[in-house]
Structure formats: C-alpha cells, structure tokens
Fold Glycine--tRNA ligase.
Amino acid sequence: MNNNFDKIINHLKSQGFVFQGSEIYGGLANSWDYGPLGAELKNKLKNLWWRFFVKRNKYNIGLDTSIILNPKVWLASGHLGNFNDPLVDCKSCKSRWRADKLIEEKFPDVNAGVLSNEMLEEYISKNDISCPKCKKKDFTNIRLFDLMFKTFQGPLEDDSAKVYLRPETAQGIFVQYKNSQRTSRRKLPFGIGQIGKSFRNEITPGNFIFRTREFEQMELEFFFSPNDENNWFDYWLNQVKHFITKELGISTNNFIIREHEKDELSHYSNKTVDIEYNFPFGRGELWGIAHRSNYDLTQHQQFSGEDLTYLDQENNVRFIPHVIEPSVGVERLLLAILCESYCEEKLENNELRIILRLPIKLAPYTIAILPLQKQQSEKARTLFEDLLQYFDATIDETGNIGKRYRRQDAIGTPFCITIDFDTENDNCVTVRERDSMHQERININDLKSYLTNKSNM
Ligand code: GAP
C-alpha cells in the first residue's frame, strides 16, 4: 500500500479518529469505529452537508426514513435482480475477486466497469492476469454476486420474513416522495435530502474506510418537471463542486470530473458524472451525480399501485417528476478531507510537525487551552469552562508547551490559547494559529469576539 496512506491510517488510529471495529475480539474484517475525534469530525461533516444541501437551499427539505423497507421496494427499484458484481474465484487458493477490479489493478487506465461478463473473462485470460494472492492464473467463470444484505423480520426465518438492509438511502425518499410533497406543500422543483446508514455486501471492501460493507450516505433527490428548461444537472454538479472546494477546502487539482460511458451506467441512470478524488492509493469515486429520469417513481407507481404523478396546476397537466441525485458516502468524503489535510513539516530544530489542516468548521476542537505551568491551572480551568459555552474546546495541562502544540496540530485544532506568568498581571493570553504558527497577545475580555471572528473567516 502507498507509504503515505499507511502513515495517514496509523496517524488516524493513534490519535483516536478511527479504531478497528470489534478490536478486542480480534476485529471484524473491514469494519471501523469512529473514536472521540472521528465521531466529532463526522458529525460536523454531516451537519455541514445538511446545512448546505437542505437547510440553506431554498428548494430543499429533509427526511429520515427506515433502513429496513418493505421488500417490494427493492423489487420495484430493480435492486433485487440488478444489484450485483461480477465475481471470479481462484481455483488454486480459493480466494474470491471482483473481475473488473482485478483488471483495473493491473491496468489502471482500463475502465473495466464498462465490459460485459464475457469481455471481462476474455480480458483476464488474454492479458495473463494472475491471482493477487497465490499468483496462479486459474480462475472460474464469472458469477454474479448479490450485494444486498439479508435478514429476517419477526420469529420466522423463511422467505415470507426475509427483509433487506437498504443499499442506498434514496429509495426511502422515493417511497415517501408523495407524503413529503403533500405535507410540505412543495411545488416543483424541489429536493429531499437524507443522511443515513446503507449496507452492501461488497466483495472487495478495503482501502481503509474507502469501501466498507456498512457506511453512511448523504443523498439528495431533486425533483423537477421534464419540461423545465433549467439545466438542473449542471446546477447540482456546480453546487457539489462549490461544497467540495469552498466549504471543505479540497483543491481542484486533487479531483477530476468523469462522465460515465453508456454501458457503465447503473440500471436507473441515463447520465452520471463522478467526482473522482486522487486518494493516496489511486483515483477513486468520491461523489456521484446521476440523472435518474422518472425511473424510480414510475417503478414505485407501478409496483405499489399508488398514483405518484404531480399535478402542474398552472398548465393543468399531470406527469411523473424527473430526478437529479447527488450522492456521497460520509466516510469516503471524510477520508478525502483527511488525506487533503494531512501534512508533515520539518521545523528549524529538525523536529517533525504533523498537522491536520482541517477547515476550522470541521476541526474536532476549535480551541485548546494550555496553562504554561501548574500555577496557571485554576485560571485555565475557569477560562476553559467559560469558552466551552461557545466553542468546541479542550484543555491540555501535561508536557512541555512545544509537545502540547504538536499534539493539537496533529488533531487539527486551529487555535491554542496559552496562559502564562504575565496573564495574572495583564489579563492577556497568547493565541497561536495552527497553520502559520503566528502568535498574538489578546485580552481575555476580547477573546470570545476575537475567536468568533477568526472561526468565521
Ligand atoms: N443512490 C445512488 C447510489 O447509491 P452509488 O454510486 O452506488 O450510488 C453513492 O453510491 C456514493 O456512496 C458513492 O459515490 C460513495 O461515495 C458512497 N459509497 C458507495 N458504496 C460505498 C461503500 N461500499 N463504502 C463506502 N462508501 C460507499
């Protein structure tokens, strides 16, 4: 694995951002838990998304639907039948691989996702692709592997009780589209946003938190009339780009925008554009923007028998709205932000400074209070409790001041406030900025407004 990626992963584990899932039992493959700092960062990211895409957007409203839905939803949506991956087994060591990923690992420029199963088999045999584990070249033919997680509802464990954990949050939105539109009295165009867990029995989870079987999605389904001449696809693509660059501080040099080829499109989509981020292990899909046409609502209308048409009162016509969907995984976005912000600097004294240059609004702590010596401890604690009413704050009283600055840099705290010998006399503290290491003396009475201004910059 990429050396830099290893460093980032180790850093996030050691600092309490991410823990191995079920660690004291030896872990559970590819499952991760979010530690005190990771949980904080994740919540802040979700809140930022919710604010940008739901609360501050004049068109949109929010929703929170169940993980387990009536199984007919998945029949209607096409997930039962279409939601599978092409799989090959190595006959020698019995390991199992996704055929398209095997090809892309060896030939990164090939987009194997667009190849048919026959073409994948031919490509693997003609190009001498071997098993990454045992290096033999003896694969089975491709079989399709169902990604849906299954379980049973109630006391019986037979087909009548079989239910599925949702593989996307989107279907909950489509199923509640009519209730949401009616109760909010929305006219087209309008969107419904949702954040929640999704589950996929992925064959090749991996690359740390990039691809897991349990993950969270932040999805928006934006409904509009097929006669609407606005280019809503470009509108949402631009909103996503704005969010990524301006709100999250991700550089435009680190992602590309790639349109799917026709044979690569999901069963529901007639146009999809992916934002692909340059992760340390290679380029990978970060955010998908799909034109789902009126596929989902049409399917649900047919399977449920419920009228899901919209009445355009001005023109007195009924139709099924079309949909643009920007969809992103919380953990995948988190990983991009963490890779973007991880930075190592050599200081003048040759010491290594690891910094997480997180945007201020995402940093787990905005400020850290650092009393220089034990004598300032009481004053520091009073200031800490006061500032805690307004800011996400922590206090660190152990170790020399240099070490404490490094500790806060390593978890991305933008401001450190040092209380020293002079504070008693001049009522001032030193505020040190994470990125520039610039220090400024500020009166405690002005601290709240100073920090408020700084953190809103
Ligand atoms: N509703 C559309 C949909 O689910 P998708 O491209 O399959 O489309 C959307 O998923 C986003 O969800 C992806 O761009 C990615 O950010 C995230 N995602 C998908 N599968 C994931 C997985 N196994 N682990 C983590 N994130 C995943």
Remarks:
- The mean pLDDT is 94.
- Residues 168, 170, 200, 202, 211-212, 215, 217, 219, 285-288, 325, 327-329, 331-332 surround glycyl-adenosine-5'-phosphate (CB under 6 Å).
- The first helix runs from residue 3 to 14.
